[in-house]
Structure formats: structure tokens, C-alpha cells
Structure prediction request, 414 residues.
Amino acid sequence: MSLRQVAGPPFAKVLAKARAELQTAGSVFAYNQPGKNRALAALAAPPFVSLRFPVTERLFMMARSRRFVLRNLPFSTRLAIAAFLSCAGVGYFSALVQLHFQHATPGTLLPTEEDTAGAYYGRTGMSQFERLLVTDSGKPFNGSGSMRQAFSTKAAGWKSSINKRAKEQKISLRQAEERLRSERDGERLAVLEWARHGADRKAFEDNNYVLSPTLSKHPITEEFLETAPDGTTRAKISSIVESRCTRCHGRGTSGQAAQFPLETWEQVHEYCEIETTEGGMSLKKLAQSTHVHLIGFAMLYGLTGVLITLTSYPGWLRTVLGPFTLLAQVVDIGFWWLGRLDPAYARFIVISGGAVAMGLFLQITLSLFDLFGKTGKIILLLLALTLSLAGYEAKTRIIDPYLAKEALSATVTE
Ligand code: HEC
Prediction:
């Protein structure tokens, strides 16, 4: 590496002069060139330090001032920065854990699009009856979760029905379960359709609800169907409710659900009234959350952003990553407000939130890695390896079983 390459063409003249000066002084000139952008470092060994001439001094300063990088800071300062970055990483991780407990469906790691829509917009326009029949069956089996399981795993003799079906039709258990599920889902859709079309009393009590042409094509358990003389398909809604619900929701039964009987049209109808939006985020809460995130997190992302710009990575990477997390945060918060108005934006909240997390992760890990020399890098790599191994172990041994248990215990048994 020649002097000219190190300092660049504008310094050519200065360099020539410097060389002349040094030659006259007969001194030893040491160039330390640790990185591409880092120019001349210290001049020579201690005995010659006093031999700095005006021009070499200037050259030295110019080379130094080309760009400041964290790597040039004293070791203690770099150690403090490394501690700060690690702390920010752990802090962000605990924020994710909190997010799990606050908004995620039991059994999932982080909130889904649906959870997000529920948190910002709320769940709307449905009666409790409808909600309980459309909510994902992974939700708790109770009045605020889902009753969908009543058609399958919580139905009387679910397992034996599968076995029977498999034997009768000479198919595998899996195929039998699939077919059975599809028919049971047809029952659910029929009840849902009846409820959505006004939960008509006569259709319920006469056990004679006219299915829509689309639904008539769906597999539905035969015993609940009837073809009327006019060719329409009729579903026996009250028979379905009796088979799938009153087993628990009947006065003669024991258990909590017996307090909420579903034996007559009146009792069922009570749950069919449309609820107004529930949940969702109040303006006050959203305003508060916006201000906390913009002020508090802006400080953090600002610092990590500035730090990444002072690394020795290529300019484009520093330029992109520096402001990235801050900007993603602003976009994310923008989507929170839109998401409160329209649940369709929930998807963008999930994406922009992920972008914030990724930005911070890159800023932290890349900056950490750039702070130290070879030994430091090796130590960091070993640490990262240990952490990922520990993380993998934690995931398989603790987190996954925990999530499975969480999903299970959320499913209240009778
Ligand atoms: C295996 C038993 C079981 C079956 C079958 C069942 N449920 Fe439930 N249901 C429950 C339990 C337990 C609760 C929670 C009761 C509580 O909050 O104490 C509940 C709650 C409800 C509630 C809320 C009651 C309230 O006022 O809080 C409704 C509505 C409901 N079920 C509808 C249905 C419908 C419709 C079906 C049939 C498709 C059904 N359930 C089948 C056990 C059952």
C-alpha cells in the first residue's frame, strides 16, 4: 500500500513534501492501515515522535480526520458501548416477551395479524354466538374464546366416530378424520348462516332452515339434512344445536356450561344479538403509546443508528441502516393509527413492527462486531454461537413445551 493510495490523489503534493521531510530526518515512518477507510495511523515509534514536521503533522491530521470510527476509541469506551448495545438487545427481547403475554393467541410466540387487528381495531359486528363459532379453535374453549371445538374434538364420541368411519369406508384414520371434520364444519356453517340471517324462530323450531345454494353443496352430516319437495335443502338447526351444544349447555347436565342452557330458541337467540365493537385501542391509550414510543424509543434507535454509522462497513450499508429503525418506527406507528380505523392495516403493523425489530437487531449485532479487533471478534463469535445453542435448547426444552401447555390450558375442559 503506497502513501498515495492511502491518502488519495488530493494529497499527492503534500505526500511528496512529507516524504522529503522524512527522508531528511532519516526517521522511520510507520503506516498503520487496519481498514480500507482508515488512513495513516500513528507516526513511527516513540523515539521519533518528536520528529514530526509541519507537513507530516498535517498529513497525519488529515488522514485521521477523514472519518472517525468507533474502532479508534479507547478500549474502555468501546467496552462501554458494547455493554450498552447488549443491554439494548436484552431490553428489546424482553419487550417481545411482554408482547407475547399481552396480545398473542395462547400457544403462538407473537401476535398474529388477527390478534393485531383485535388489539387496535377491536373485534366487531358479530353476535357472541357468531363469534364463538368463527373464532379459531386454538382459542380457549369458553365464552370469550371459541366453541368451534364442540363440532370436533369436544363432540361426544369424536374418536370413536373417526374409527367407525374408517372401518365403514375402509379408509385410513386420517382420511376418516378429514371427512368427518368437513361434515362437521358444514353443520357449523349451517348454524352460522341461520344466526347471521336473523336467527329465525320458525326455522329453528320447525327444524327446517333453507340453506343457501352455496352451502347446500358443502358436505354436511346427513342426519341434519332434508330435501324439501320444492328441491331446496333444509338444515335441522335445532337438532344440530341439541347434538353439539346441549350436551354441556343443558339444564340436566353438570359443569359450568349448564348455567347457560341452549335448549330453546329464546336461550339461543339471546346470544345472537350483535355486539358493538369490543376491545380495540382507545384514542387515549393510542396517543399515550405513540408518545412513549416516539420519544423513548427514538432515543434508543437514534443512538444505535448513530453507532452503526460510525463503523467501518461500506458507506451504503451505513447510510441505509443508520436511520432505518427510526423511520420504520414512524411508519409502524402510522399504521397503528390506520389500523385503529380499519382492521385491514393489521398486516402492515405486523410487517413494519418486524422491520423495526430487524433494524435494531442488525444495528446492534453489526456495531458490536465492528468494535473490536481479531481477538474480540473471535470472542464475540464464540459468544454468539453459545447464545444460539442456548437459544435452541431453550426453544426445544422450555419455550415450545410451554407454548404447547399454554395452548392446552387455554382450552378449558368441561
Ligand atoms: C364440552 C362442553 C361444551 C360444549 C359441547 C359446548 N360448550 Fe359452550 N361452553 C362450555 C363452557 C365450559 C363454557 C364456559 C362457561 C363459563 O364461562 O363458565 C361455554 C360457554 C359458552 C357460551 C357463553 C356463555 C356465557 O353466557 O358466558 C356460549 C354462548 C356457548 N358456550 C355456546 C355454545 C354453542 C353454540 C355450542 C354448540 C355448538 C357449545 N357452546 C358447545 C362448554 C361447552
